[in-house]
Design goal:
By secondary structure, the protein is α/β, with parallel strands linked by helices. It has 10 helices and 14 strands. It folds into 2 domains: 2-107, no CATH class; 121-283 and 300-344, Alpha-Beta Complex (2-enoyl-CoA Hydratase, Chain A, domain 1), CATH 3.90.226. Mean pLDDT is 91; it is low at 1-21. Helix 7 packs parallel to helix 8 (257-265). The chain has a 7-stranded mixed beta sheet with strand order 3-4-5-6-9-10-14, sandwiched between helices. It has a 4-stranded antiparallel beta sheet with strand order 2-1-12-11, covered by helices on one side.
Length: 345
């Protein structure tokens, strides 16, 4: 049960097609009835209204005239879509037979500007790893970066969907052992299994370490949660990277389990986070249905850091660095450059 609770599965809407759309029987297509059910559902079961200080009543008041004016299902869907935008939560999505919605407003900052992308894999391959790299089926790219007579291990992990195999470690461990430090790159990593995330994070610890907490939404009130349950990383018997100076590279599209992984490594004494703030995603998606059969998904539990602050808003880097388009056009990754400077100190 505990493993189930901490396994944050980033649910991709790509696998749900309109043809496979699963509805409920005896649907009620009355817009006002569905809007009321939708508002109550979010009010009572979405876990971040209180923690994010979202005035859900104000959102309902703003959207009500649009519901009353809606002349089609498409127009009504757009109203609910606009409502969900206020949650700024990438674990929130909605599916109807004719349209799918995924909340992406967390990628926009408070000033209305999109967070910088900060990532160009082509620049890394062509100008840093060159021919000294290998790609594994599990989504891992790794190799060595040399700078001023020093050699550093570079690892890029694209998603926590597949656990690292012995075959992965067979090729990666020798590079880490002979390196003077590690650049661990998880930019644009959307998440996956929370269990895989915490297991991989454990490679960076030499003793049992508290890395955060989790709690379940237990009641209809905005702050009705279970008691906090501690999350730990325990040293692995096979792999110990706790003595290797490590730079963890992040950007805003580091989400869900990748965000949890970042939170955990904040407690590793040898790890420094460099780049941009991560994207958040501190909850496990739960499925719900409206009376008209539309599927609505949103989190029903909360992850916290060791200071008992929720991590839904993302993890701030220790060293903030932005790679501009001009940098990438020049074949330069400013975040990797900053990581190399730190490693050579």
């Amino acid at each position: 049960m505990k493993r189930f609770i901490i396994s944050l599965l980033l649910v991709s809407v790509a696998f749900v097609s309109c043809e496979k759309y699963d509805t409920v029987k005896d649907v009620n297509n009355d817009y006002m009835a569905n809007f009321k059910a939708f508002c109550t559902m979010i009010d009572e079961e979405y876990c971040f209204l209180g923690l994010k200080n979202i005035d859900w009543n104000a959102v309902q008041d703003e959207m009500l005239p649009r519901v009353q004016a809606a002349k089609s299902e498409q127009e009504f869907f757009n109203v609910l879509e606009s409502s969900l935008d206020y949650l700024r939560d990438g674990h929130v999505w909605m599916i109807s037979p004719f349209k799918r919605y995924v909340c992406d407003t967390y990628l926009i900052d408070e000033d209305g500007n999109k967070y910088p992308g900060n990532f160009d894999p082509g620049v890394i391959k062509d100008n840093y790893l060159k021919e000294r790299f290998r790609t594994m089926a599990s989504g891992i790219v790794f190799g060595e970066i040399e700078r001023n007579g020093h050699t550093y291990a570079y690892i890029y992990y694209s998603g926590f969907d597949n656990d690292w195999t012995d075959e992965d470690y067979k090729y990666i461990e020798p590079i880490i052992e002979r390196s003077e430090g590690i650049i661990f790159d998880i930019r644009n990593n959307p998440g996956g299994s929370g269990e895989i995330g915490l297991t991989l994070a454990s490679n960076f610890f030499d003793k049992k370490t508290l890395v955060g907490y989790h709690a379940l939404k237990t009641g209809k009130g905005h702050n009705d949660f279970s008691e906090l349950q501690a999350l730990y990383c325990r040293p692995t018997k096979k792999h110990d990277w706790s003595d290797k100076k490590t730079m963890l590279l992040t950007n805003r599209e580091v989400y869900s389990t990748a965000n949890l992984f970042t939170c955990a490594l904040k407690q590793a004494k040898n790890v420094t986070q460099i780049g941009g703030i991560s994207g958040g995603g501190g909850g496990m998606p739960m499925t719900h249905y409206l009376p008209n059969g539309w599927l609505v998904v949103f989190p029903g539990n909360v992850l916290f850091d060791i200071n008992k602050q929720h991590i839904e808003g993302g993890i701030e880097p220790d060293i903030e660095v932005t790679s501009t388009d001009a940098d990438f056009d020049a074949g330069r990754d400013a975040i990797i450059e900053a990581a190399l400077i730190e490693l050579m100190k």
